[in-house]
Each structure stands twice: as C-alpha cells, then as structure tokens.
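G., the chain you wanted modeled:
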Amino acid sequence: MEIAVYGAGGVGAYYGGRLAQQGHDVTFIARGEHLDALREDGLTVESVAGDFAVDCPATDDPAAVGEVDLVLFCVKSFDTADAAAALDAMLRPDSAVLSLQNGVDNEDVLADVVGTERVWGGVTYIFSTIKAPGVVEHTGGPARIIFGQYHDIADEAPARPALADDFRDACEDAAGMRADYTDSVHATLWDKFALICAQAGLTAATRQPFGVINDTEETWALYRRVMEEVVSVAHAEGVRFDWDPVTKWLDAMASMDNDENYSSLHYDLTHGKRMELDALHGSAVRRADEQGVDVPAVETINAILRPQADANEP
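Predicted structure as tokens:
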C-alpha cells in the first residue's frame, strides 16, 4: 500500500513505521526538529513490542507526497481544517482518509473537504509519544485501531470498501499492531470520546496520574460521572451502543496497569502547549447544549481547564 502519515507524531509515526517494516510505501508528513531528524536519521522506535528503525521519505509539504491509497490523519484536532485543505493532492477517487484523532468533530470537517465516501472514522488504543526528534517511545496499550466507513448518523452503515480489507490485512501482517473494521463507527467514536473526556479531564484538572484518581473515592465518582454525561449526549444525538461504554471502561481502566499514566491534555497543559480542550470538553458542552442535555460534571472540567487552555493558545 501507498500510505501517507499526516501528523507523524507518537501515534502516526509508530503505525507508519510498523507498516513500512512490512514493505509498504510510507511517507511521513511532519514539521520542525522532528522532521529534520526523520530526514537525516530516519525513524527510531523504542517499543515494548520490539525496537526498530526505518528510513522513510519525510516532508512538510503534502503536495510533494503524490497520490496514495490511504492517509493516516493524525494531526491535532485544532489543525484539522487547515490540514484537510491540503488533502486533495494526495487522493485518488478511491483513496481514503483515516482519522485517528481525539474527539468526534474531525470526521465531519474532513467529509466537508474530501467527501464523506473517502473518510474513515477511527480510534486507537496505544501509549506512544515523541521521546526526542526522530525517536518515538511506545510504552504500552494494545496498539489496536478500530475503524469504519464514515456516514451520516441517521443512515445505515455502507458496504465495507475493498481498501478497508487491504488496510486491515496490512496491519495484521505488521508486528506490534492490529486493526479491526466496524460497522458501528459512530458508537466506536463516542465510546472512546467518553473515555478521553474522563481520563484527560481528570488527569489535567487534578494534575494527578490515573492511579491517584482511581484510588480517590470522590474523584473516581467524578470520572464515572463525566463518562455517563458524555454517553447521554451521544444517546441524544442518535448514537446507539450494543454495549455499555461506562461499565466497559470502568472495569477495563480499574484493572489496567496504568497507574502512572496521565494524558496528552495533561502534558500539553503542563508544558505550555496548545490544548485540545475545545475538541474534548468544549465539544461535549456545545453538543449537550444543542440537545438540551445537562452535563454539569463536563461543564465543570471545561471551566477549570479553560483559563490555562486560553493561556496556552499561540
């Protein structure tokens, strides 16, 4: 496959690197010192699933990539609109853009630019960050992607594209990752959205790792309440789950060995970087208001973090 990784950070570079290991034609789109290092020394990955290094083309100009089968779209949510404007140069009529971003707004932005039929909604579960320019550190998580053809929430899921099978097979063949297709793309996106709003919101607001949150009765109750409120907004928007997202995540997170984990929102807050608050709690509050759903816990997290998010704006 010909694959462009748009936003070759900890997540995008890890998956792109694994696919390049299998001989797929991967190009990284990055910027700054990370781009310089990728060009000069290639990508080095320090992974719990096995260290590796690959040398792939890297650029900051999407137009220089040429047409590809698939774009792994991994930019920060606040860059989605600007980055989407440069996608056409990389897409054929049967190409696809797979969003692996935080939030539930990105797919609609992409669809407005490249057409809904070329957008795949996706989530991923992985702990992987840029350790140094050109170096990605993968510390855990199942390194699993769940994706599906995007569509209007009121419509039935369309038929699975042949390209989706090609990508799933490519991921199955690659070491250290896997991918699964879903016909329930909206439920899948909102399922993770509920988790992120709780995990990111509480670690950022308390400045404490997950283990402390889990061990503190009042804070763990708030963690649950945030998820319940986000799921209630999903229901109001017409999302239907074949499972209980809240119970699923409470059980999974309580039993997971992640006591020292924070979140990317916490990292950005504490390092003076632009935060994805608008794509997370801001979006949940806006959507709740539109649907007439009360979300006091989410509103509180949003209000607590808003001054620092505003201060970190460039």
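The chain has twelve helices and ten strands.

Shout if anything looks off.
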